[in-house]
Amino acid sequence: MRSPTRRGFLGLGAGLALAATLSGCVGTGTAATRATDSSVVIGLSAAVNTLDPMNTTSVGSDLSVLSSVYSSLVTRRPDLTIGPDAATSWDRVEPDRWRFRLNEKAAFADGTPLDADVVVWNVERLTDQDNGLRMTSNFASLLRAEKVDDHTVDLVTDGPDADLLGALSFLYLLSPDWTEDHDPATATMGSGPYEITDYAAGGNVELRARDDYWGTAPDIDRVTYRITPSEAARVSGLLSGELDVVAGLDPQDLERLRTDRALEVQQSDTTRMAFIKLNTLKGPMKDVRVRRAVNYAVDKESIATSLLGGTVAPSPGQLLTSDYAGYSDDTSGYPYDPEKAEELLAEAGYGSGNPLRVELTVPSGQYVAGDLIAQAVTQQLSEVGVRARINSVPFTVYMQKYLVDQDMSDMQYITQAWPTLAAGGLYNLFVSDSPYAYWKDAEFTDAVTRARTETDQDERDALYADAAERARAQAPVLFLFPQPGIAASSDGLDWQARPDDWVRPAEMSWKGND
C-alpha cells in the first residue's frame, strides 16, 4: 500500500468531488510488476511536432522528449533553480558578456566533443534569421558566441540581459558535423542521457538510456512516450497500468484517480496561464471594443468552479502567473458584466440585426479541460449575442495554422508558460515581431524591449508593470486563469511532478531499484 505522503506532496482538498464517467478498470498492481525492470511509459496528449529543439517551444511534447536527448549549457532543476548541464560554471564577466566553462567530458553519442566550437556554431545557427527557427525570437538580445579556449565560451548580448541564463536552460545543442548530413527535424544524435530508438511522425517515441553518457546515468533505462490525445484514454491507461505517468490531467478526474491505491496523485500550482488568444490583425478582433466585450461576457469564476473544481482563480488581467519575476500586482481582471459587453458590442456595430460571428479553434485533448472550457465560453458569448463556432482540430494541425501558416482564426484556446520564469520571456511571445503574438502594439513592445536591458531592478519592474497594464487595457486575449497542475503516476515510481510542465524520465526511478 502506498504511503499517504511524499516529498513536495500537496494535499488534495475534499472540495473536489466532481464525478467522472470515464471508462477504465481499477488498478491492477502493474506498478509493482513494472518495478522489477527499469522502463516507464509516459502518456502525452499530443504528438511530437519536430525533433529540432531550436524549432519548437512546445514544452509538454517536443521539448520534454528532446530534453532527454540533447544537452543545454545549463538546466532548470525540478525546484526551478538553475544548475549545470554541459557547462560546469558560469559568470557574468561584463554587463553584456557571460562566460561558460564546459564539462571536458561532455560529448555527443558518436564521440564528438561538445566543446566551445559546438556552442559557437549553435549560436550562429540560432541567431541567423534566414534559418527561420522558432527559438530565435526568444533570444533577441543574443549577438554571438566567442570561443575563449576549447572548453570556455563567451556569450555576448546587445546590452545586459537578466533573462539570458534562464533562456539557455532550453537551448539544446546540436552536433555541427552531424547536422551537415542529417535533417534535425526528423533525426537525432544528441549529447543527453537518452537516445531515440524508434520514432515516426505523429506516433509514439521510444528512448533508451545511453551506455556511454558522460553525465550521471539515469535510473530508467527505457522510456515510451505514448501519444494519447483523449483525456479518457489517459485516465483509463493509468487505471489499467498501461501508463505509468501522465501530467496535465483534468480536475474532474481527481476523485476517480485517488480511489486507486496503485496510483499516486499530485496537485500543485503551475507556471502556465490559460487564455483565449484573439487575432487582432484581421477581422472583428481588430477592434479593442470587441476584445474588451468578450472579456466582460465570460464568467471566469463560474467556469473555474464548475470545470476545474475551484482549483484555480481567475486571472487579474495578466498574461503571467505570480511565479514570474516581473509579475505586477497592480492590474485587475475583467469582471463578469454581460451588460457592459453588450454596450461595447453595440458601439462596435454589432447587435441583433448584425450579430458578431467568430470561430474559436481548440486543439482537441491538448489542454486541461480545454474542450469543455471552450464550450462554456461559447455558451456565455451567445448570451450577449456573439455566435461563436468551435473548430476542434488535432494539435499538429493547430500548430501548423497558428505558427507555420500564420493563419490563426478569430479566437484560439491556448495555454502558455516560459521556462525562464521571467516576465520578459513570456512577454516576448506578445511583442510586435513575434510569430506567436497576432498583436502589434508599439507601447507594449517598447516597455518589454527596454526592460530586457534595464539593470536597475525597480526600473525594470516598473517597465514590466507598464507592459502588464497595457496588455490588460488592450486585451489581446480573453483572460482566463492558470492551468491547474494535476499529475498521476504508478505508486511504485519515485517522481515529483514539476510546476513548469517538463516531464523528464531522468528525474524518475522505481522504488526499490535505488
TrEMBL record:
Q: Does the keyword Oxidoreductase apply?
A: no
One Gene Ontology cellular component term attached to this UniProt record is: ATP-binding cassette (ABC) transporter complex
Q: What GO MF annotations does this protein's record show?
A: peptide transmembrane transporter activity
Task: Could you list this entry's UniProt keywords, alphabetically sorted.
Answer: Signal
Instruction: Please list which residues make up the signal peptide.
Output: 1-19
Please list the residue ranges annotated as the Solute-binding protein family domain: 82-423
Q: Which GO terms describe its biological process?
A: peptide transport
Entry-linked PANTHER family: PERIPLASMIC BINDING COMPONENT OF ABC TRANSPORTER
Provide the protein name.
Answer: ABC transporter substrate-binding protein
Q: Organism, per UniProt?
A: Streptomyces ruber
